[in-house]
Amino acid sequence: MSAATLLLLDDPLPAEVAAHGFALLRGADMQARLGLPEAALEEFAASWDRLEVDRFMADGGRYRRRRHANFTARAGVPGHVRGPHRPHFQAVVHNSLNGGVERWFGPMEDAVAASAPMQALLDLGRAVADARQPGADWFVEVHQFRIEAAAGAPGFPTPEGVHHDGVDFILIGMIARTNLVGGETLITDEAGRELARFTLADRLDTAFIEDARVMHGVTPVQPADAALPSCRDVLVITWTRGGPPG
Question: Which whole-number Å values give the CA distances from 26 to 30, 99, 122, 198, in the listed order?
Fold first, then answer.
């Protein structure tokens, strides 16, 4: 499925991003666009059970698991080409907690990277990015995140607080919420004024963010039932024009 086919004629999604700096699509709307078989989504979601502990948390936390991949997308050429495994890097100005160092995370499994859900989400996000910045070559990073919480030990989806990522566009897609309270997404302007607050609650609830224009963050998560496992699984994809962010 090409990126172009995922945006309808006169599609309001890029216009909403243009107007507000972000847009929210609920899971039912996303699934209507993507048309993914339920079995493929279940298999995709199951891969979050195989993430590795993030050992680069400067706060000493072990509440985050993740995998990482990178792709390139060339202007006028359909699809995304996966690149050699490389570290993730953010400048300190964009990540005051963990920035300024090369962080090597476990690579995304090949089957997950090539799966129909991943490719469809890459294509839809690219369609929005292309609509906002036509003719761009994109460097794309994909992050699988699991944030775990336990009684007395909350998890922090964005321990660096409300922030920019230092990229052009961001897609944040919910995969699963298990036994959670909290985890509200906040969108603010540069001065910190709140523009929106919402919860990605159901599978494929998705936020599209134009990073230079707004900031984003997520509130801590805690278990709803302290006796049961608790986690928040999300997919984050970023598009940076021209090359890797610095």
Answer: 6, 31, 17, 11
